[in-house]
Amino acid sequence: SAPLSIVRGAGQAAERGILMRTGEAFQGFRLVRRIILDKTGTLTEGRPTVREVETAGGSEAELLAIAAAVEASSEHPLAQAVVKAAFERGVTPPEVASFQAFPGQGVVAQIGRGEAIVGSPRFLTDRAVDLSLLQKRMEILEAAGRTVIAVANEGRALGIVALGDTLRPDAIEAVASLRKSGLSTILVTGDNERAAQRVGREVGVDEVHAGILPQRKAAIVRELQADARVAMVGDGINDAPALMQADIGIAMGGGTDIAIEAADIIILSNRLGALPEAREISRRSYRKMV
Ligand code: ADP
Ligand code: MG
Description:
Belongs to the cation transport ATPase (P-type) (TC 3.A.3) family. Type IB subfamily. The protein contains 13 helices and 13 strands. By secondary structure, it is an alpha/beta fold. It folds into two domains: 166 residues, 3-Layer(aba) Sandwich (Rossmann fold), CATH 3.40.50.1000; 116 residues, Calcium-transporting ATPase, cytoplasmic domain N (3-Layer(aba) Sandwich), CATH 3.40.1110.10. The strands form two sheets. The protein has a seven-stranded mixed β-sheet, with helices on both faces. It starts with a helix and ends with a helix. It binds adenosine-5'-diphosphate (ADP) and magnesium ion. The site of adenosine-5'-diphosphate (ADP) has 23 residues, from helix 3, helix 5, strand 5, strand 6 and strand 7.
């Protein structure tokens, strides 16, 4: 049976909405020196909304109709926001014949005879869509912290959709508390560099890695493990490999099932303040054990 200190620790954790799930959670978290934080859905609420729509010359309705048609097949929070915005503006999306989602990049769908693409600007330019006329506006929106996605139909850019998300209320305080206890804090995200840097500055993390594809997240954890124990905090399907790779994987309670299954600790309350608290519980449980 579990040592009494761990039973007590588990109770203290539960009172704070923290589920310490494995022995590692108690024994290992106190030894962690680096903590990696996902941006969307972890440092932020993860409920983006459409804030700006900029067309490449055509109508906003056409742009939103194509975007919503493609995104209707995706479960990504960005996709849900686009579908909602189109619905609210009374736009009816055309029918989609087939689609393929590319995690961390975007979605490609067949509409009529043509192919439509919605995703990160890099995803579209990689697929030979020319976004040069929208470049300046994308940069301004990204610098303002927006996640910018681009929309193309039959190889032609229709425009961009800028989405905004809000920081969790205790994000700044939680990062400060983790840093004060000697942890180095690293933001890792699939989102664009400018928006990531802006959020990174706002919450005060030590390092920012942006534009990271899901499989790279786990590789970054591995690299940071070379000389220290690493914890990873995330919420999405795209975080699951990194959560498994980390010494301590921590999932937000509102996250996807796959992330939750991959984690040692689950923050049921979705409070980021639970991170320093869980570390303190790990320290105390161990002290009483020896
Ligand atoms: P994060 O690390 O912020 O949780 P993801 O790895 O899920 O983000 O996605 C990274 C980027 O890929 C997004 O910022 C967006 O540009 C693009 N992307 C991913 N999925 C979609 C989608 N369904 N529709 C549009 N863009 C997407
Ligand atoms: Mg996320």
